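Box 3.1 A note on notation
Throughout this textbook, protein chains are presented in two layers. The first layer is the amino acid sequence; the second is a token string describing backbone geometry. Keep the layers aligned when reading.
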Amino acid sequence: MGKFFEIIASGNDAINSAVWGLPGLILLIGTGILLTFGTKVFQISHLRHWWCETIVSVFKKDSKTTKNTDKKTISQFQALCAALAATIGTGNIAGVAAAIVTGGPGAVFWMWFAAFFGMITNFSENLLGIYYRRRNKDGEWSGGPMYYLTDGLGKRYGKKWLAPTAKVLAVLFSAFAILASFGIGNMAQINKIVLNMDAAFFQNATLGTIPGTEIDIIHLIIGAVLLAIGALIIIGGLQRIARVAEIVVPFMAIFYVIGCLVIFGMNIDQVGAMFAAIFKFAFTPAAFLGGGLGVLIKKTMTQGFKRGVFSNEAGLGSSVMVHSSSNVKEPVKQGMWGIFEVFFDTFVVCTMTAIVVLSTGFIDLSTGAPVAGANGDTLVSEAFGQYFGGFGTAFVAIAMFFFAFTTVLGWSQYGSKAVEYLFGAKGVKIYKVIFVLMIVSGAVIEGGLAWDLSDTFNGLMMIPNLIGVLALFPLVLKVTANYVDRKIKHKDVAPLLSYDPALQKEAEAHLDEE
């Protein structure tokens, strides 16, 4: 078993270096910058509008945002919660801590930098997802990069050679999404749940390992329990996943943020030094890294970008597959939920984790170096334990469980939609069985490998998706301008809602319901 994992790790390292090299980072950030300025910095220039149309609308009386009468779709708020369920995971806790331990405090700045432009990347992905979605044979919406590659890039420019190229990209994206669902969406999440649950509740357990292997029996038992819970929810499909996410996600996020704010309040005297370290080491290599500017780019920026993408998934095209199931009619409106999704995931939840890590003494703010023995996997848990004792450690373990396990639920839907595109509805049933069984693998696999595989699959998904987004850049601008003219400037112009004339007509007929 150990030799097998070594072979996988060796091959993964080679692919990871290629995918997350300078060209990949330029593609990721460059796309966000282009879209940001193309939409006239929509996330800032229309901040009040998208804020009111998303999270504020949830609290309005008789709001359509949280209501849904169509059993084949989910509400806009459920779509957000299901997407946040998939994005708010180990990347927000262990991922941020690992980025700081590996790349220094400056990694936080680059996480913010990527997220700012990632807001519009996610906006554009969701817009395209709604515009190019269609109903499957069961009457459910199917959307995602594979569809806007096939029907967008493949047909938009009237070039015959683009159709087969777009189809290949769509197939590649779907294949990478399935693999990513096993990595970022399953094994990496389960692995962190098991490590934190073991550290919090089973430190004195002495069951040992399975004879002839290195598999910890406690880890295997936890994995089996998670498998059973996962099967009950995942087999129930998107409706069940959405209902669970709608209940769990808001509460888990709020409680975690409150806990972080309490620790922040206890260390309020560190706020100046903390933010100074973030900005200082974003542009100056941390002393413990060494190697000058080259290492700054390689470790600090790369760690910030990679962990940011791991956390908010902007650029991957993954969350589009659940946002496309929303009952919304306006592509731009679901796009705005994408802006909020990245904002809340990175600027709120990830920042809270960074505050805990940087303000509790585990990082030397003068050098940027982690203290001896600092472990990104359990750093946040140790920080909470330092201030709240055993309760704090247990709190983080429970938070990690909810954060990570809801990510598993969300990603099962992403993988299902990718399988549906490649193999049809029959393949989805087989995929779900395999996905659920893979939960046990995540419980016993070596943690570092699970993270490395996730980074690689993220990058492989990112490439075909961003090619599609860039190719459809003019359409994103056109649909966005059309929405701004109608909803903000109140001009009398025909709406742009779907690539399909029949779906366009259907959406127009129900547009007043939103």
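The longest strand covers residues 134-135. The domain at 2-482 is CATH 1.20.1740 (Amino acid/polyamine transporter I).
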